[in-house]
Amino acid sequence: MKLNTMEPNPTWGPAGYEDAVDALGQDGLTFKVWGGDWCKDCRQQLPDFAAALREAGVSDENIEQFPVEKGGDGSKTGPQVDEYDVELIPTIVVEKDGEEIARYVEDERIPAAAYLGERLEEAEQTA
Fold first, then answer.
1. Would residue 56 count as lying in a domain?
2. Considering its fold, how many domains does the chain have in total?
3. Are 3 and 65 within 8 A, CB to CB?
4. Which of 76, 88, 106, 118 has its CA 20 to 30 A from that of 43?
5. Does the pLDDT at position 127 exceed 80?
6. Residues 32, 67: contact at Cβ < 8 Å?
7. pLDDT of 26-69, one tens digit each?
């Protein structure tokens, strides 16, 4: 099932995000995205992130979407939520060769594309 919030924002542009777009477009990356169309933070953040992925040339096969529901106690339920320790949404995990190399969680201070771009650049420099 796809998230409506992962439809790319048609007005988003790469200006100011060129380095992040380059980092997101590295070969061999898989993006796992947990979110909910009911979630305000997801509706605000994921369309721009999806646009950055599109700009980076990331294929749909490398983007896995996991719809999350909110329990009555505020807990999150959905596919692989427990396996990936997802507590807040959106959560985006970037993997390479099946290993997590970067993670964005809802409460970061900068947009997902910029945050993950920085983490991916750091990971590439230490590799």
1. yes
2. 1
3. yes
4. 118
5. no
6. no
7. 999 999 999 999 999 999 999 999 999 999 999 999 999 999 99
Tell me the pTM.
0.95
Residue carrying structure tokens 């542009």: 13
Give the strand pairing for 76-77 and 99-105: unpaired
Place of tokens 């290993």: 99
Residue 14 belongs to a domain? no
- CA quadruple 115, 75, 47, 59: dihedral positive or negative? positive
**112-126 and 40-56 helices, crossing angle to 10°:** 50
Is 74 inside any structural domain? Answer: yes
User: Which range is least confidently modeled, 19-23, 44-48, 67-71, 99-103?
Assistant: 67-71
Angstrom distance (rounded) from CA 35 to CA 40: 10
Strand partners, 77: 69
Alpha helices in 5-111 (DSSP H): 18-24, 40-56
Q: Is 35 helix (H, G, I), strand (E, B) or coil?
A: strand
> What is the CATH classification number for the domain harbouring 41?
3.40.30.10
Task: Quote the CA–CA distance of 70 and 75 in Å, as a whole number.
Answer: 6
Domain that holds residue 66: 28-126
